[in-house]
Amino acid sequence: IKVPSLALNNGIAMPQLGFGVWQVEDDQAFTVVGQALEAGYRSIDTAAIYGNEAGTGRALAASGIARDELFVTTKLWNSEQGYDSTLRGFDASLTKLGLDHVDLYLIHWPLPSKDLYVDTYKAVEKIYADGRAKAIGVSNFLPAHLERLLGETSVVPAVNQIELHPQFQQAESRAFHARHHIVTEAWSPLGQGRGLLEDPTIARLAAQHGKTPAQVVLRWHLQIGNVVIPKSVTPSRIAENIDVFDFTLDDADLATLAGLDSGNRLGPDPATFDMA
Ligand code: NAD
């Protein structure tokens, strides 16, 4: 299966569907990243805090897939915010991954109470200028945080990775990103598999299209322009989640799904989350 790419604001191509590895142990990451690559995924989303950059890196190496066909994202953890500590945090991630560059480097959370994200981003810009990240961006940034970066730094973030699924559609952030040529990347795209996939409306659409609820939800993300990074450790679901390029939701289906937004987050609120 071949996944289409989106062009980021600096021209770098990012696969629109990738594989997320949150809550996967390092050894298991070696196994499931290998399975994902086998199934056709080429984009992998990890983070320093996930503790599985080493296993992920070993799977990438073992796959034998050319580096320029892979798209590797990792993220700076909160405890490393600040200019010098960001440079050190990045070095540590690169070493664990066994790579000489990543494709996308993100600041994991804004931590507005610490007020370090501008300095942190300036270090990320340095990493970008040195060619050690092909694209840079942020995660969990609210429009107000992005406004500050746009005003006080030089490189417009290529991506903002945020919680987004049919029950939490993030209309305001998506519109802001579109205005500034920032790609919206959806985390917990399947609503963490809790509840969303049992929704009767989604089940009805799935039956109509002869696909599964997870496939309908992923198709929705792709058609509204999101990058999507579903996670699974089950081989059949890893394959199922990439098998979403042989059907199309029509306007009525999209309107039906638009109606499922409840405005309720599953994860923390970026305005207040300050875990280090
Ligand atoms: P997800 O929405 O991808 O859901 C994953 C869960 O859904 C699985 O554990 C499984 O229980 C279930 N599932 C997966 N495929 C299924 C299928 N085909 N049928 C039925 N159930 C299925 O949740 P996630 O892992 O939270 O998010 C995906 C990725 O997003 C993460 O792995 C991580 O890479 C990223 N993420 C980033 C942040 C951030 O702060 N930047 C936060 C959370 C997640």
TrEMBL record:
<feature type="domain" description="NADP-dependent oxidoreductase">
    <location>
        <begin position="17"/>
        <end position="260"/>
    </location>
</feature>
<dbReference type="InterPro" id="IPR018170">
    <property type="entry name" value="Aldo/ket_reductase_CS"/>
</dbReference>
<dbReference type="InterPro" id="IPR023210">
    <property type="entry name" value="NADP_OxRdtase_dom"/>
</dbReference>
<dbReference type="Pfam" id="PF00248">
    <property type="entry name" value="Aldo_ket_red"/>
</dbReference>
<feature type="site" description="Lowers pKa of active site Tyr">
    <location>
        <position position="75"/>
    </location>
</feature>
<dbReference type="InterPro" id="IPR020471">
    <property type="entry name" value="AKR"/>
</dbReference>
<dbReference type="GO" id="GO:0016616">
    <property type="term" value="F:oxidoreductase activity, acting on the CH-OH group of donors, NAD or NADP as acceptor"/>
</dbReference>
<dbReference type="InterPro" id="IPR036812">
    <property type="entry name" value="NAD(P)_OxRdtase_dom_sf"/>
</dbReference>
<protein>
    <submittedName>
        <fullName>Aldo/keto reductase</fullName>
    </submittedName>
</protein>
<feature type="binding site">
    <location>
        <position position="108"/>
    </location>
    <ligand>
        <name>substrate</name>
    </ligand>
</feature>
<keyword id="KW-0560">Oxidoreductase</keyword>
<feature type="active site" description="Proton donor">
    <location>
        <position position="50"/>
    </location>
</feature>
<keyword id="KW-0521">NADP</keyword>
<comment type="similarity">
    <text>Belongs to the aldo/keto reductase family.</text>
</comment>
